[in-house]
Task: inverse folding
């Protein structure tokens, strides 16, 4: 059930992002090309059932206030060690593999240490 909830939320985040992007000028859309590519790929990655996400990761992603895709994009921008999208997706998702008992508060990009 949580996986379906995550898929629905990711789809809504992506549709909202797409709608906002389509309101931009051609130049702004061009400038946002990498963000568009990132969010498109990450949407497909997260919604692909072949990518097994633990319940812990799913629940922690669902605990993010606001757009999950925006939060993941910020994490990506804060780190420059990724070589492929699959490496990037796996590493960024691993940041959300913490237990609620480890930290009662909700984590944000400011709370996550990037090596």
Result:
């Amino acid at each position: 059930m949580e996986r379906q909830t995550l898929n629905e939320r990711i789809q809504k985040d992506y549709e909202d992002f797409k709608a906002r992007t389509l309101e931009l000028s051609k130049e702004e859309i061009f400038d946002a090309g990498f963000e568009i590519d990132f969010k498109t790929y990450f949407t497909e990655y997260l919604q692909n059932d072949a990518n097994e996400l633990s319940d812990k990761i799913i629940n922690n992603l669902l605990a993010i206030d606001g757009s999950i895709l925006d939060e993941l994009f910020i994490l990506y921008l804060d780190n420059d060690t990724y070589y492929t999208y699959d490496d990037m997706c796996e590493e960024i998702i691993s940041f959300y593999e913490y237990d609620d008992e480890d930290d009662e508060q909700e984590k944000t990009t400011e709370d996550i240490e990037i090596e």
